[in-house]
Amino acid sequence: LRRGGRAPDLAGRRVVISAGGTREAIDPVRFIGNHSSGKQGYALARTAAARGAEVTLVAANVALPDPAGVRVVPVESALDLADAMEAERRGADAVVMSAAVADFRPAASAASKIKKDGSAPAPVELVENPDVLAGLVASRDREGLAQTVVGFAAETDDVLANGRAKLARKGCDLLVVNQVGGGRAFGTEDNQAVVLGPDGTAVEIPRGPKEDLADRVWDLVAERLPD
Ligand code: CTP
Ligand code: CA
Fold first, then answer.
1. Are 24 and 106 in contact (CB under 8 A)?
2. Which ligand sits closest to the CA of 100?
3. 116: helix, coil or strand?
4. Alpha-helix runs per DSSP H in the chain
5. Ligand 2 mean position to 154 CA, how many Å?
6. Which of 75, 95, 164, 187 could pair with 37 in a Cys bridge, judged by C-beta atoms 3.0 to 4.6 Å apart?
């Protein structure tokens, strides 16, 4: 255990974490993607395992080694990730959506590689992906389960106001809001955030290693778990 050892306060709990960034196929060789490295999600998986949880990590296109003792379910697209999360959430005590899910995908993926033919390129028509996080909250509410659902958000401008509005829209129990821009968050080793809850909770987590942020998130989740 790190830092002198933590009590295994998540022993007997099952947690499901999504990490990385989805890829939305344009053709067999091209995709629309994003810069998410998966580091924050992997830190959440490592710290939960260190605190005794049984951990499933749904990993979208992450180039990191599998954390020891964690079950990794690889996915590619937002639709894959939605299916995997809906399957894995069953019976879980906590579900954390740290993956960067593409908001849009190409309406159709070409079966063959798209070739140049000297004329203007065809536009790529996009359609909206399902909101996985909102779907997980809806599934939880439908079943009336005591399952803690956590979202992440990267915001610019009025970070707190945007975060509060997003928390209300998604209906999750905690929203971890990162401020982005100026080299923060994507691919970096450090992270800083404010964690919002519907009861008005706003916990500031100072800039530090992604493991520290992960441990603070698990502290807040652990407080909300039923005995
Ligand atoms: N998310 C999701 N499914 C989507 C988009 C986002 O589950 N189709 C999740 C992310 O994993 C994250 C949270 O929702 O936990 C917030 O993502 P974000 O992109 O900030 O929210 P959006 O609702 O997509 O809003 P925006 O227009 O600001 O991108
Ligand atoms: Ca989005």
1. yes
2. 1
3. coil
4. 39-50, 78-88, 132-143, 159-170, 210-224
5. 9
6. 187
- Collect residues with CB below 5 Å from ion ligand 2: 103
In angstroms, what is the C-alpha Rg of the chain? 18
For the Cβ of 49 lying below 6 angstroms from any atom of ligand 1, the answer is no
Is 129 within 8 Å of 116 (Cβ atoms)?
no
Residues contacting 52, CB < 8 A, separation 6+: 8, 9, 10, 11, 12, 13
49 with 33: CB under 8 angstroms?
Answer: no
Note the ipTM here.
Answer: 0.99
Cα–Cα distance, 185 to 137 (Å, whole number): 25
Global pTM? 0.94
φ/ψ (deg, to 5) at 113: -60, 130
Q: Closest Cα to atom 29, ligand 1: which residue?
A: 103
Tell me the pLDDT tens digit for each residue of 35-70: 999 999 999 999 999 999 999 999 999 999 999 999
Per residue in 120-140, pLDDT tens?
988 999 999 999 999 999 999
Contact 182, 190 (CB under 8 A): no
Beta bridge partners of 20: 60
Residue 4 Rama label (left phi>0; alpha psi -120 to 50; beta): left
